[in-house]
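Bench notes, bay 3.
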Amino acid sequence: MNYLGRPWKDYSRTVYMQSYIGSFINPVGWLEWNGTKGLDTLYYGEYENYGPGANTSMRVQWPGYSLMNASEAFNFTVYNLTMGDTWLPDTSIPFSAGLLQ
């Protein structure tokens, strides 16, 4: 089994949004790195993922783990996080600036 991630250091940040997650992901989703180190300061979020590994009913219950709403997820979009709408068009790389509909 694989995991979505684990906190190597304090203030770890990982977000999965609107992504296919396969059955090879452990249902708990996330794994501790070194006991409880980093669990109080991390931010791990999931938003509208799909696929057999996207079921969140057995996910970890850490203080910094979140099932995000649309407003929270928007903070991690190309538009908001990297201001990609201002520079990505020049690269000819296809992208979606906001959340998928």
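Next record in the batch:
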Amino acid sequence: MIVDKKPDTSDPPPYTSESGGAGPSMSTSPPDIARCNLLCVERSNEKINGSYVVDPSITIPEQFLQPLREDEVADDGRRANLRLVTTHSRIDADVWVLDKTDAKVLTPNRLVFQSTHGAVDIRLHDLGRKAPCNITVRNTHGSTTVQLPRDYVGKVTIHYKHGSVSALSPRMAMLSDVNGER
């Protein structure tokens, strides 16, 4: 038997991850898709499934927007930067929120997700910036899962009636849990 005593100087084979991974991406750049602002998607009997990059610096003339809804009138007439609403189906969305670069005072971005008879699964991805958000999730008959980046800044309000809400992270401060609203 001959033993080669020379050290092996060849590089190891390249490593390729095959796992898709769960939870929000740690990427600092959003996907290369069209930016949106003040977007309202409403569907009946059809799921909403997609990726959205919210850019609050995009201005849209009033005549192209949907009429204000009750909750928007109650919120000083501010529209949601992204509103996804479905009845009799589910919402499954990946969301990135860009900073409004020219703003001297950062007004929180509003994200609204609502389903009457289906699950709501939302993943807010980290861009390494601090665009403040207020997230509202309403779900009547279905489970609710909201995944947030570790450094998320903002309020999360979850309204649920006949469904479930995944456990809240110990890093979140719960301000209330009253009659199906957290």
